[in-house]
């Protein structure tokens, strides 16, 4: 039996635009997913998952994800979660050259599903590490990141960047531009996160942006402008200029909103954070529902979020330098 864990993340800047080759800066946070893999005698998969937003469910199957378990969670989310586990196990089987290996998989996660904090990337990254180690194979962090990207790419039907999976595999702050992924220096950032209890459908949201981009030249310009914000943000990060980072986050949120990926509850939480004196705030991840991230070293934003209608949880998160590791 082998357990591995990997962190979730927030996007300081650049989600969606990164899909079109613009740079993005995701940062790993101190909320993790743990995946335990135990080899079975047969080639089946049995998955048990515990999540902040789930009461827990167990499903046994031989690789097919179309039999949804009888639990009080959206079947779409369960299917998506199972799809990621399947894809991670396929990558591990391929890496270890054991196509028939079966596993009992247990997932414990502090990262709400589909909420913009990189739950799927963390599960895929930790799942690949746990399952390959269980098969006696040790992969480099780069290979785990690459295989996790391929798994996400497959589940999201070709609409994924390397940002989430690379960040979860390496930890810390990273910069991703197309195939070029690297760790970057970052000061301690006073992240405050607001969660509306919901989730967005990454595939649909990415498609929505793609359609806007194809239809309107100014939507394509908007995506490029997000890239300009990221480049400016990298300079602010290197200088430790939190005030400037906040201003750029506000700008980035406005452009994501224009691209149609915000929601009423995300906008409400963003405004609650700004009104409470945060340096800046934006949605994080695919959008449509889920989480916002703000920068505030005081207690004010966290308190304001707790009293914001539609905000289910407001919490602080540290930048986490630890990427994927054996638990
Ligand atoms: C989702 O967490 C981030 C997106 O940019 C998609 C991706 O980068 O794969 C929306």
Entry summary:
This protein is of the alpha+beta class and 327 residues long.
Would you spell out the secondary-structure blueprint of this structure?
Elements: E1 2-13, E2 25-40, E3 45-51, E4 57-61, H1 75-95, E5 102-109, H2 119-134, H3 141-155, H4 163-170, E6 173-177, E7 180-184, E8 191-195, H5 202-215, H6 217-239, H7 242-258, H8 264-275, E9 280-283, E10 291-295, H9 300-306, E11 313-317, E12 325-326
Parallel strand pairs: 3-5
Antiparallel strand pairs: 1-2, 1-12, 2-5, 3-4, 6-7, 8-10, 8-11, 9-10
Bound molecules: (R)-mevalonate (MEV).
Looking at the overall shape, the CATH architecture of the largest domain is 2-Layer Sandwich
Through-space gap between termini = 11 Å
Q: Report the helical percentage.
A: 40-55%
Beta fraction: 15-25%
Could you tell me the radius of gyration in angstroms? 19 Å
Mind describing the biggest β-sheet? 6 strands, mixed
What is the tally of helical segments? 9
Residue runs with pLDDT of under 50 for 5 or more positions:
62-66
Number of structurally distinct domains: 2
